[in-house]
Amino acid sequence: MIQSLLIANRGEIACRIIRTARAMAIRTVAVYSDADAMALHVRQADEAVHIGASRARESYLCAEKIIAAALATKAEAIHPGYGFLSENAEFAQAVIDAGLIWVGPRPASITAMGLKDAAKKLMAEAGVPVTPGYMGEDQSPDLLAAKAGMIGYPVLIKAVAGGGGKGMRKVEGAADFADALASCQREATASFGNAHVLIEKYIQRPRHIEVQVFGDTHGNIVHLFERDCSLQRRHQKVIEEAPAPGMDEATREQLCAVAVKAAKAVDYVGAGTIEFIADASEGLRADRIWFMEMNTRLQVEHPVTEEITGVDLVEWQLRVASGEPLPLDQDDIEINGHAIEVRLYAEDPASGFLPSTGRLQKCAFQKDYVRVDSGYKKGCMVSQYYDPMIAKIIAHDDNRAGAISCLLGSLDGTAMWPVKSNAAFLYRTINHSSFREAKLSTSFIVDHADELAVITEPDYFMLRMAACQLIYDREELWGMDLTAFRLNAKKDYRVRMRVGDNRYTIVAPDDFLNTTYVSSLGTDIALVTNEGASFGVTLDNSYGNGSGGVSSGTILSPMPGRIIAVDVTAGQAVTKGQKLLTLEAMKMEHSLTAPFDGVVAELNAEAGAQVQVEALRVRIEAVDE
Fold it and tell me: Which band of pLDDT confidence, cut at 50, 70 and 90, is reported for residue 446?
């Protein structure tokens, strides 16, 4: 058995691996960048090594630095987690060549399944059904556009080296193809160093179904049933569950058998996922489910499989990498109950899901009846340099309704401040009647966007508690001594408060305080949580608002990041909604658009420049008729 392990990753997955390694008495070594010097995974590991600057390409993507750190600390093995170098065959081979154990599949398997076009061809040859599309070597824009027309719109452009929803664009018609192709290739080059794409038929009411497979070095390959990952935003998974709702036993058996066949076709070792797209317009049927791709690593959503099978997949990875056979045979793996996972991101749904960064003054989870996998706690910094996921919250119960109930309770008590999160969005999504009825598709979030974006403001009851918290936090309120008042605890006190742009006058009894929903962030602010949303409640005379808007035509950078494209020039006429420039932050592209028709009166932007939050970039002036 491996005795010491270097984890070539960060955040939640690094903490997750450390937890299992510690239970197995395996010494752990963390690596970290400048931005992660005080990160949770660094503090949890037995040893930590600094590997470079904050940008991933100068740290977590530097194979030589990671291998050198493993050798210097006498680690026996390297676990790549997911993302970064986890599906890089050259890195896997370099680890092996350095005399270290690679906790993952053989490099040849990574290569075989790493490019989506080659993987689909291989699967078709192995008898695995694949989605119709174009996977050719000719990448000229004219040919790709012609192929898209032949396939029939809508189509999906996908980077062959892509993953995690990046390098993927849905195109509704021929007029949009050129811009979508350029954006997809640009993002693919930045994220994966490979601009090659394929074109697939876009299935109108699709469900994303995937099967967890696992192989060992003794020729054994098993499946651990399926997951439904249909709820996505911008092709990135948001909510996953296992087993897939509506999957009958006959379809499950056929689908899982196909997944095992796919794994055997590449002589697979370790944890892997076979991903399928299903036309669920008439329910889940085996003849309407097609292979999309294989992920040759542990998946973000692996906890739902662990919860329904009772298997620790990281432990299996470490045992298989140590040369042991799989701990269980196929007949010994069973489904127990239902599990759902939600991904808690540092982003603001009210502002188009823009990433939110900063230090977490509050980071609290309601952990009753759920599992929380996180790489953050109070005091941690959410950086602009990495993926914005703060945590995964996983509920397991006897049935799907029970799992939903557990998740709602947990999200209701989740508190984040001042970094914004999508907790309220997740709450409304899993509480939506269509989700409860398992009416799922990859367009679910788009179809219900207006309903899911609504935030439920705190009611008078919660505001009274916040007022009491503020009273308790201050010895004086507007010059009044409250000591005697608190001893009496029989009078009401009128408190002027603000929540966002709204003012309230609250009558609060001094003995009325319930900290279940309210917490203190000092003498000036109380935090109220309601259905996943976190509200900062302040005394009216201490409130300040430094945010900017676009009503005057001033466009501020909504986040720190890098300008990757400027689409206008000073003096140019623009129309409402026209793209002005594109920012890259947290590995995603974000467009800033014109708020109304006008002229670019001021332009302070150039491609490649770094910008800070609320820095002036563009000013639009309206033109009089």
Answer: very high
pLDDT of 562 strictly over 90: no
Q: Starting from the edge strand earliest in sequence, which strands make up the sheet with 573-574, in order? A: 554-556, 616-621, 598-603, 573-574
Tell me which fold the domain 554-621 belongs to.
Answer: OB fold (Dihydrolipoamide Acetyltransferase, E2P) (2.40.50)
CA distances from 625 to 385, 597, 600, 622 (A): 44, 11, 17, 9
Residues in the chain: 625
525-536 pLDDT, tens digit each: 888 888 999 888
From CA 66, how far away is CA 63, in angstroms rounded? 5
**Which SS3 state, helix, strand or coil, does residue 563 take?**
strand
pTM comes to 0.79
- pLDDT over 50 (residue 549): no
From 8, 99, 89, 135, select the one nearest 296 (Cα to Cα): 89
- As given in the structure block, the two tokens for residue 178 are 């050129």
Q: Rounded to an integer, what is the distance from CA 189 to the centroid of its chain? A: 20
Amino acid identity, residue 50?
H
Highest mean pLDDT pick, 74-83, 358-367, 552-561, 610-619: 74-83
390: DSSP letter: E
Q: Could you tell me the sign of the dihedral formed by the alpha carbons of 90, 94, 96, 102, in that order? A: negative
Distance CA 601, CA 591 (A): 19
Measure the CA dihedral 14/166/410/242, to 10°.
-90
Residue 329 and residue 122: Cα distance in Å, rounded?
Answer: 27
3-class SS letters over 245-272? CCCCHHHHHHHHHHHHHHHHHCCCCEEE
- Output the 3-class SS for 505-558: EEEEECCCCCCCCEEECCCCEEEEEECCEEEEEEEHHHCCCCCCCCCCCEEECC
> 3-class secondary structure for 394-445?
EEEECCHHHHHHHHHHHHHCCEEECCCCCHHHHHHHHCCHHHHCCCCCCCHH
Cβ–Cβ < 8 Å for 608, 214: no
In angstroms, the CA 278 to CA 129 distance is 11
- Where residue 108 falls among pLDDT bands split at 50, 70, 90? very high
Whether the Cβ atoms of residue 338 and residue 241 lie closer than 8 Å to each other: yes
4-103 fold: Rossmann fold (3.40.50)
The span from the CA of 491 to the CA of 499, in Å, is 24
206-452: CATH, from 3.40.50.300, 1.10.10.10, 3.30.470.20, 2.40.50.140: 3.30.470.20
Is 297 assigned a catalytic role?
yes
User: Domain locations in the chain?
Assistant: 4-103, 132-201, 206-452, 460-542, 554-621
Nearest to 527, CA basis, from 407, 381, 430, 421: 421
Mean pLDDT throughout 97-118? 92
Question: Which of 10, 27, 207, 297 is labelled catalytic?
Answer: 297
CATH architecture of the domain with range 132-201: 2-Layer Sandwich (3.30)
User: What share of the chain has pLDDT > 70, as a percent?
Assistant: 90
Average pLDDT of 278-289? 90
Burial (CB count within 10 angstroms: exposed 0-12, middle 13-18, buried 19+), residue 625? exposed
